[in-house]
Structures are given as structure tokens and as C-alpha cells.
Amino acid sequence: MWTDQGRDDNQEWSRAEYTAFIRANHPDVGGDREVFQAGLAEFRAARRGAARPREADEQPDRFDAPVSVVARLPLGRRVRTRVGRWYRRRKRTRVV
Fold it and tell me: H or E stretch including 76?
């Protein structure tokens, strides 16, 4: 159901519920780590609309992107660039 502000009441409640769960069960404030992880998995599964949370041994597919390798400049060129920049910086007029 949409309200005047254009937000769904159920979305606001789930955000408040999520925040309350985090504040109550976070391991940094003395909560149990396993309970916290299980609760996060449930919230994420509900947000995705999935029926089950991901298993612990199941890996996400985020490492499927192609790898791009960037070659560094040769050492002589890097040194020349650094010295040139240093020289131009030192050559600038200074206000005394």
C-alpha cells in the first residue's frame, strides 16, 4: 500500500525491523555471531525474494568478471616522469 510520501508501509517496517535486529544482535555489542549471520541471511533472502538463504559452502558468482592487466611503465620512464614533476614543482615561483 502506497502512502502520501510514495513509500510502501511494509518497506518502512522491514527497514525498522532490520535496524532493530542489527542493534540487538550485532557481535560488536555482545550478540551471538551465528544468530546474527542467520538473521542477516533471512533478511537478505526475503529482500531477494528467495525461498532459502545461501548455504555457507556455496560461493557467489562475483569472481566471473574478466581480469584486466595494466602494464606499468618502464623504470626509466617512471623515474624521468617523477624527476620532471619534481623539477616543475620546484621551478614554480613562490610567494615570500
Answer: helix 75-91
